[in-house]
């Protein structure tokens, strides 16, 4: 019989606290001892481990404790009749289980942990004096114990722990499994990491699998000598990859909805605990007095909410205009200067070095733009942090769009030098993707090694001796020293998936918008993505702490960016074909040129037609939803009739007595 994860009492969360120097007789007031006793009183299973310099408190929550927390949180879960109802511990069998057989998903379990950990408050009649070494402080009535210990830097960090059994299993059948180049255990990834990371890898796997078709076409076009027929082969290749991209985006929507249905995820999920841990408020910034004043005139209330709504939209429009103007005024001259230098320099070695220096230099502009974007987003009014994160994605992608493509547009539009254009594309693809993979996989290990070295050095200084080898024997301590899976930009709103999705979107734009100039780019991208699946998996399982789970039902704003890049690709590739056809620049409306212009309009029309032709939801998902809704309606109707019938009988009985 398979044992569910909740029934195994696996340690899933760890707190890092300093080693206690208090004497045993003073342990009753020691804040770490008080914290441990509070956790035990709540119902946690606690294990304390001594590390080299810190102490680690591992927590495991039995199923009954998680159920109580879910009930207090009024958590809604999917039932067997398809309705999302408030969880009740006494009606466990009514709720649908996860793909791995557990009752709660990782995201739901972490919400329960978060509620239980931060829900420990002082319920005494007076404040409690706590000690940490020589320092004393007051734990006030109604104050969260963990919050005050965090403010005093006593609780240094709270992070999710890897489950070693499941981690090693995923390493074997996912990260180190090279036999199935695009296959992945998506359900296991969802159960272990949560919906957001699972959706990213499902998207990456499908994208890579579909990439094999244009990669094969690109190889054929590169290897076969078409001669005078090349001007005909390129438009055929262009039409094929545009149709491929349109179909891919539509069929991904179908797969997305199928995964959400299989995982029983509600589209209207609540606040994300990962956001709350970072201290970001996810609520809409509406004045409290508008909600509390029940006697306000309805007309005035409506006007007030409309004013808030439209002022918020105007503020967002203003901020977007600031970002766009900043990109044009500050970054555009730098990008054009680089492109011009690349055009006039003759030495390939100097060009390569210039490209490397350029890629490092633009990081400064990106950091500056990210800081400005975050300040602007903090002034905007959004319903949730998901909307705030989407706004950050659009703004940052605008910066990277300018960085990545303006130089290439310069070579294509002004000089029409296809030899230089191909050279630039090859260098950008090789340098950016190889450099990104090297940095992604080497930086976490370098950070981890440096932190271990730093801990050993400090420990030797405390001992006053440089002799002896210091070993890290605890798995919790090793995970604590690993870097967090966080975004390089906008850490408050995004995790490490931001960088992975950004890399994927930039690659898609590079190979799609200049497909006619360099068809072989699809083969490079396919090889890179096959490697990316395994390296990203290895990164999550071995190089980083276990990420905080984040709720999601789609890949968010990134899908809109992919749609935008498809439309851009239609325009740019048609322009490239026009310049290939009209090399002398006569711009006469000849049959070939007219055909290219007509083709552009036809492809744009097909782009919007296919979005209507291919349904976003598979038929079985829709049929199951309708079936469950009908069953739920029937059950509610019968229950309502019984209630009405019982009420009438009681009323008649009362009348007879009277």
UniProtKB/TrEMBL annotation:
GO terms for cellular component: membrane. It is found in: Membrane. The chain crosses the membrane at residues 197-220, 232-252, 321-340, 352-370, 391-413, 504-530, 551-581, 593-610. GO terms for molecular function: chloride channel activity. The keyword Nuclease does not apply. InterPro entries: Anoctamin, Anoctamin_TM. Coiled coil: none annotated. Residues 189-626 form the Anoctamin transmembrane domain. Keywords: Membrane, Transmembrane, Transmembrane helix. This is Anoctamin-like protein. It comes from Cucumis melo var. makuwa (Oriental melon).
